[in-house]
Amino acid sequence: MDETREPHGQEQTKKSDDTIAYIGNDPVMQSALDVLSTLGNKKKVIIKSKGNAIPNAVAVANIITEKMLNGNSKVEKITLDTDAAAGIGRMTSTIEIILVKI
Amino acid sequence: MDETREPHGQEQTKKSDDTIAYIGNDPVMQSALDVLSTLGNKKKVIIKSKGNAIPNAVAVANIITEKMLNGNSKVEKITLDTDAAAGIGRMTSTIEIILVKI
């Protein structure tokens, strides 16, 4: 059993019960529906985004917690960080928003 | 003593010891230096931003906590919210990042 599937693309599923959703520059409502469907069968979703797509991730988190799953979900944790592309000194801000069902 | 100065513009000072810094689309390093000087004589700074300026606020928080005041400051709390402009239904994401000296 040495063929390990290298997780990549939109959704990476870690062993535990949470899923990572990368938010880019897709329409916010479409991303929100993706995250909503993921939260449908998971307890936790980790929304990740960087640079100019960060406002989209914030909007998705707001849409889920204030509209779609209002009162049934909340922001558990928010982490800010910096992604330094090797060698070229450009720093990109990153955000990680953990949404959980309550 | 009825002349009350209406707080507006870049810095609003509340009665308590924290200052609000609104981050817009100014160069990030310039905003970071503003916040640094504020943190110089305050214990806490509340960074606020909205919409497409949110990545700038995240960058400022990272520059302060990871570079300028590395080890002497931290992110105390992050709040995400939505600003609904009255009547026209446009929703704008907002972020509030509280930085404190440690």
TrEMBL record, chains A, B:
Domain DNA/RNA-binding protein Alba-like: 22-81
Name of the protein: DNA-RNA-binding protein Alba
Record-linked InterPro entries: Alba-like_dom_sf, DNA/RNA-bd_Alba-like
Organism of provenance: Marine Group I thaumarchaeote SCGC AAA799-N04
Secretion signal, residue range per the UniProt entry: none
Gene Ontology MF terms: nucleic acid binding
